[in-house]
């Protein structure tokens, strides 16, 4: 590709190459192609924005940041660039006030190319982190009215809209009664397995903890067993493997969750409405609480409950000792067998 190629031909060849790169997931390989297009078409902001997206898809927010600053120097009101810049300011730099300003400008009037669910999600989340709860709620209401969220409280981004929405599910209203009773029957053995594997636990990585200490041990992720983990928890894994909707839930996990006294997990939502989340209380559940939407409950030793984590939820450990629970994600019961097989993993 060079200056002797017509503009039309250059765009055609470049797009074909970019499509192949995106299919393979090697997003950084698109950079020289986008740089060429930017030089050839310096007045077209779209190529700069597409380069930004490639960097973000490759988890290179630092490189995206450089492109965004130059883009906004040339096009200070470009809504796509503003929305991506707000995302980078929030998630990469933790500059929440600046992120809110950029995202508010990008979403002004609720119209235009930046009016996407993910940008409303990040604007609302930044406001929550800043303690500006009423403003966050207004953003969530706007997004729900636009059809970007299932409701102001149910803000997951990867959804099957027809599925029944309810924050809390009685176990008896699901097909997972057998799983719940098996876990409850063996809860003391499961507790021993969870405690014996403490050296393998990892700190929570999603930035959801406002204060305290929270760690987890994954057994299954995206419908696959973590190699070797079930040797440390054979009783737990045997029960999970007996329920295909748990062991094969490609939009969920099975994990132990350990939380120390004084921990607060801030309001947040899960990524999808395609799963339900079962908890089994294992240790030190007194004075530990979880709010899902508007209802707050407490864990009980050896007992399960089920909720939909696509609704806003938060957690407090106001008690003493390490609170341990087992988390088992299961497919939403209204998903068809075909959907369970074909929905992309999360």
UniProtKB/TrEMBL annotation:
Pfam family, one: Asp_Arg_Hydrox
Taxonomic lineage from the root: Eukaryota, Metazoa, Ecdysozoa, Arthropoda, Hexapoda
Any Gene Ontology CC annotation: endoplasmic reticulum
Aspartyl/asparaginy/proline hydroxylase domain residues: 184-333
Annotated PANTHER family: ASPARTYL BETA-HYDROXYLASE, ISOFORM L, ASPARTYL/ASPARAGINYL BETA-HYDROXYLASE
Official protein name in the record: Aspartyl/asparaginy/proline hydroxylase domain-containing protein
Superkingdom classification of source: Eukaryota
UniProt xrefs under InterPro entries: Asp/Arg/Pro-Hydrxlase (IPR007803), ASPH (IPR039038), IPNS-like_sf (IPR027443), TPR-like_helical_dom_sf (IPR011990)
MF terms (GO), sorted A to Z: peptidyl-aspartic acid 3-dioxygenase activity
Family: Belongs to the aspartyl/asparaginyl beta-hydroxylase family.
